Amino acid sequence: MSQQRTAAFFDLDRTLIAGSSAFVFARAARDAGYIRIQDFLPDVVRALKFQFFGSSDESSHSVRDRILSRVGGMNQADLVGLNELVLPELLGLIRPEARALLDQHHAAGRETWIVSASPIELVEPLAIALGMTGGIGTKGEVDNGVYTGRLDGPFCYGEGKAEAITALATERGIDLTNSWSYSDSMSDLPMMEIVGNAVAVNPDAELATLSRSRGWPVVIFAQRSKMLIRRSSTITAAVVAMLLTYSLGLRQGRKR
Q1: What SS3 class is residue 216?
Q2: What is the largest CA-CA distance in the chain?
């Protein structure tokens, strides 16, 4: 009798990478001319809040709705084409400790998966670039190669992540009781509870408290990763200042 498969499931933002993949995606869309610079300012502010405080149900659903509204009417091929800009930057944000964990799980013969609310068009190529088994992400509805602005299936967030992992486990014969989940956020509690080994990575306050009460390991990544976040935050703050100046200039120009 063959041994059942096991897997390690990784949240993306603030777990595998330092920061927000949605922000990197939005910036690439801005550079490609798909969104206006004044529409990009909210993404900068949200990215700063996310780096310091993490996500919430409200902010994550806001990101979902904003992305869906912006890609509505856009060709899927154009969105996939953004990966030429997005993937190199995301690979540069992969935490060194996360790479070490991936290597450990690969050595143990486990499948490795990214599970993220980010678009599947971004998540799957990133997983492949990292040598992982695959990625689970949010799917936008496509009609004749064009996004409709609606979801194609559940939002891959909260309970949606747990549902997607459970479906994948059934399809691939993965033993969840001997599998692993990694996340920084309390919003990922559903995906952490369905596996036998949950690990909190640089957790928010609520997840840290819960992890201690349940005896889950809490991993605080090393100074190198924290310095990366601080440098990224400094750069992002400079972008905020630049865009605010630009926005104020536009408003003053209109008043004249």
Answers
A1: coil
A2: 79
Cβ within 8 Å of residue 252, ≥6 positions away = none
pLDDT in tens, 23-78: 787 777 777 777 654 554 454 445 444 444 445 454 455 555 555 556 667 788 88
Name the catalytic one among 13, 184, 188, 204: 13
CA distances from 237 to 126, 148, 244 (A): 26, 34, 11
The ranges assigned to domains in the chain are 7-255
CATH 3.40.30.10 fits 7-255, yes or no: no
CA 3 distance to own-chain centroid:
31
Active-site residue, from 11, 43, 184, 204: 11
- The yes-or-no answer on residue 13 being catalytic is yes
> Residue length, the chain?
256
Query: What is the chain's alpha carbon radius of gyration, rounded to the nearest angstrom?
Result: 19
Q: In the annotation, is 11 catalytic?
A: yes
39-53: per-residue pLDDT in tens? 544 544 454 444 444
Closest CA to 138 of 115, 105, 159: 115
